[in-house]
Specification:
Blueprint (H helix, E strand, L loop, with lengths): L2 E2 L2 E2 H20 L13 H18 L2 H23 L5 H19 L7 H11 L7 H12 L2 H12 L11 H12 L2 H22 L2 H17 L10 H22 L2 H4 L3 H31 L2 H7 L3 H5 L1 H16 L12 H23 L6 H10 L5
Antiparallel strand pairs: 1-2
């Protein structure tokens, strides 16, 4: 396993893979506008609908899960490195998460679906858990992954036929979309700083992403302790089991998710159950993707291909925010306004081009610098000394 400057190259490549999926999904959905542009040509209309369905099926919810997993693993690496030096990193890491939240504020000014501020809050919550035993972390991980809030609502719904699950206002999302499709750049910025940020966190809560993020952060720590990435070649038996179990679970969970009998249940049962099945099936498919990626990585001929994603993964913060700024300009009204005319095929191809440009830029930049531009700022501010 290649380790460069305390970085595990497999994890950097996996993070790059997750961001590839995220950027393609964002382009197809026009950075949260989520409008499917219809084509008058039957064949193109079929292609566009197929691309829309396929991209959401493969990437929707799964890439963010993989991104969160690599974040949790990085959490483990940073604390472990400082522990070996006899340093207490908790205070600095809390400040690091405060800085990440600030980057989230910067990000949300361009894209209302941002996730960095959610990761920052979740990262703060797991600081007190860092020294728990692996067994205790596993128990907590399972609890979070089971979506406890939805389990509570499901239990109430089973007992009380009159129970109606909590509804969440869509006005924040609608405000952000209206600014994106009709407003100026300043309208987008001011709206996203209020409604956009509110929508980001409401969506993370109502979709179950908050609890899943916490679970994946803890899973990343557990995997770090057990060397599942650092010693992937020696652990291929475990990865093969994970591959088989995850794809089996996904097929079962996805079948239940789309089952008409589940959908037609009363809302007190169907609403929380559908969220749970969606998050569990996404988690299973994300595990399948990660397992597949790792099993290919241990084969030299495939590793050389996957390793091409390492520069993008090493500059994940810079690339994630930069991709959103570019996407906002391409699709929003304040820029080129292509949301109204760009179908899924054209948007997907645009996303591939933008990713390729950023990938080559990342390679060029990292041959001259140790860190990406925003990663350098993040690191400098994290270690700032206050007199």
């Amino acid at each position: 396993m290649t380790i460069l400057n305390n970085r595990i190259s497999l994890v950097d490549a996996l993070r790059g893979f997750a961001l590839l999926g995220i950027i393609l999904l964002h382009h197809v959905e026009h950075f949260d506008i989520a409008n499917l542009v219809e084509s008058s040509h039957p064949l193109l209309a079929t292609i566009n609908k197929s691309i829309w369905d396929t991209v959401f099926f493969i990437f929707g919810g799964k890439m963010y899960a993989i991104f969160a997993l690599t974040f949790g693993f990085s959490f483990y690496i940073q604390f472990e490195n400082r522990k070996k030096r006899g340093e207490n990193f908790a205070g600095r890491f809390f400040w690091r998460m405060c800085l990440l939240f600030m980057f989230g504020i910067l990000h949300v000014m361009f894209y209302s679906g941002e996730i960095l501020s959610v990761y920052a809050l979740a990262g703060m919550l797991i600081i007190p858990l860092r020294n728990l035993s692996t067994k205790a972390l596993t128990v907590l991980m399972v609890i979070f992954a089971l979506e406890p809030w939805e389990l509570i609502q499901l239990g109430i719904g089973l007992i009380n036929p009159e129970f109606v699950p909590c509804s969440y206002p869509r006005v924040f999302y609608q405000n952000a979309v209206e600014a994106a499709t009709t407003g100026s750049f300043w309208d987008v910025v001011t709206t996203n700083l209020t409604s956009g940020m509110a929508n980001s966190h409401l969506f993370a809560w109502r979709s179950g992403r908050y609890f899943q993020t916490l679970a994946l952060f803890l899973l990343g720590i557990i995997m770090g302790r057990n060397g599942l990435f650092a010693e992937a070649g020696k652990k291929d038996g475990l990865w093969k089991k994970a591959w088989f179990i995850s794809i089996t679970c996904f097929i079962l969970l996805y079948t239940l998710k789309v089952c008409p009998a589940i959908v037609e249940l009363r809302s007190g049962i169907s609403a929380p159950l559908s969220i749970m099945l969606s998050m569990w099936s996404n988690l299973a498919f994300a595990t399948f993707l990660v397992s597949s990626f790792v099993l290919l990585w241990v084969k030299t001929k495939f590793r050389n291909i996957e390793a091409g994603l390492i520069p993008y993964g090493r500059m994940s913060l810079s690339n994630y925010i930069c991709a959103s700024i570019i996407g906002s300009f391409i699709y929003y009204h304040w820029g080129l306004g292509l949301y109204a005319v760009s179908g899924p095929l054209f948007s997907l191809l645009t996303g591939i081009v933008i990713f390729t440009i950023l990938l080559f830029f990342s390679r060029w930049w990292l041959t001259r610098n140790r860190r990406g531009p925003l990663e350098w700022v993040w690191n400098k501010l994290m270690w700032i000394k206050l007199k």
